[in-house]
């Protein structure tokens, strides 16, 4: 599908680029992408969800410093700032409340935002970061990633951006994370990472975000999850072991867990149909309640 232009949403002194799928006047749900990605990563889920739940207004913004959204000037891009940004963004696009979904690093952003007062009637976390980065199945690769980003941190901006966007390193990451045996899908995933994995504003904000991504877990903000929550994870996730996802489910007051066999950390690429089918079931009570309220207001 051809991509339509984004809406500009003023947030914390910048214009956040926001792509809207479905009915712009419908029940809002905000999709928050992961580290090094942009809205393209969740575009497939947004389009498929809009097809089965046409009364939703599905917002897919680029995070500050990623894709087409600029970094927030004068601020360190720590997790608390990303959470503050999401609070402001959801207040702008869903002033009467809505729902929030976060993938990977996006799950941390969502958790920080909820702890800062963001409202979400139902929350969905895909491949949530439920354990410290160095405890995952690929802990050695995480150590290498830390060294890689530290090396970039010591370089001038131009050299740092060149290293951080190195095509061979990006491809290596993609090869490790992709679990599908479908050659066509696997090639498409690599192309997505090639096109969008290096679309970041500057090395400083990227390095800040990386430190945030490996220094926090969703569990730190467990108390903020006072709403029904759906956790979706791949059985072969390289970032967070399945046992830790089960621990997170038990930690949250009202959480369901969907485990997708044969899939890893790229659920949003490798298991779109199964993911959207479950999300559709999960959000319907909230969309139906919103439809009823709208009917009562118009009566």
Please describe what this structure looks like:
It is a single chain. The chain is an alpha/beta fold and 299 residues long. It has eleven helices and eight strands. The protein has helices at residues 43-52, 79-93, 105-115, 139-153, 157-164, 167-177, 183-196, 203-215, 242-251, 267-270, 272-298; strands spanning 7-11, 14-22, 27-32, 56-61, 99-103, 123-126, 229-234, 255-260. The protein has an eight-stranded mixed β-sheet with strand order 1-2-4-3-5-6-7-8. Helix 4 (139-153) packs antiparallel against helix 5 (157-164), helix 4 (139-153) runs antiparallel to helix 8 (203-215) and helix 6 (167-177) packs across helix 7. The radius of gyration is 18 Å and the shape is globular. The model is unreliable at 291-299 (pLDDT under 50).
The low-confidence parts are 291-299
Label the structural class.
Answer: alpha/beta
Radius of gyration: 18 Å
Mean pLDDT: 91
C-alpha termini separation = 38 Å
Write the layout of secondary structure elements.
Elements: E1 7-11, E2 14-22, E3 27-32, H1 43-52, E4 56-61, H2 79-93, E5 99-103, H3 105-115, E6 123-126, H4 139-153, H5 157-164, H6 167-177, H7 183-196, H8 203-215, E7 229-234, H9 242-251, E8 255-260, H10 267-270, H11 272-298
Parallel strand pairs: 3-4, 3-5, 5-6, 6-7, 7-8
Antiparallel strand pairs: 1-2, 2-4
Helix pairs in contact: 1-11, 2-3, 4-5, 4-8, 6-7
């Amino acid at each position: 599908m051809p991509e339509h232009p984004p809406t500009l949403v003023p947030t914390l002194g910048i214009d956040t680029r926001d792509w809207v799928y479905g009915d712009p006047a419908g029940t809002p749900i905000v999709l928050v992408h992961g580290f090094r990605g942009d809205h393209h990563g969740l575009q497939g889920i947004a389009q498929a969800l809009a097809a089965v739940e046409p009364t939703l207004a599905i917002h897919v913004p680029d995070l500050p410093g990623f894709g087409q959204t600029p970094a927030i000037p004068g601020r360190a891009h720590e997790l608390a700032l990303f959470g503050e940004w999401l609070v402001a963004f959801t207040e702008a696009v869903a002033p009467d409340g809505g729902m929030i979904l976060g993938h990977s690093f996006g799950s941390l952003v969502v958790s920080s935002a909820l702890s800062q007062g963001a409202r979400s009637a139902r929350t969905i976390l895909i491949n949530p970061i439920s354990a410290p980065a160095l405890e995952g199945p690929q802990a050695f690769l995480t150590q290498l990633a830390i060294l890689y980003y530290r090396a970039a941190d010591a370089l001038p901006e131009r050299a740092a951006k060149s290293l951080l966007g190195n095509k061979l390193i990006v491809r290596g990451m993609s090869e490790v994370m992709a679990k599908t045996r479908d050659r066509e899908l696997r090639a498409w995933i690599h192309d997505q990472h090639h096109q969008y994995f290096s679309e970041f504003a500057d090395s400083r904000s990227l390095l800040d975000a990386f430190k945030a991504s490996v220094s926090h877990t969703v569990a730190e903000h467990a108390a903020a999850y006072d709403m029904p929550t759906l956790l979706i994870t791949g059985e072969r996730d390289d970032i967070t072991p399945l046992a830790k996802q089960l621990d997170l489910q038990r930690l949250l007051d009202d959480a369901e867990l969907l485990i997708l066999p044969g899939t890893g950390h790229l659920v949003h690429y490798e298991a779109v149909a199964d993911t959207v089918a479950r999300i559709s079931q999960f959000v319907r009570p909230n969309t139906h309640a919103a439809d009823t309220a709208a009917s009562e207001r118009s009566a």
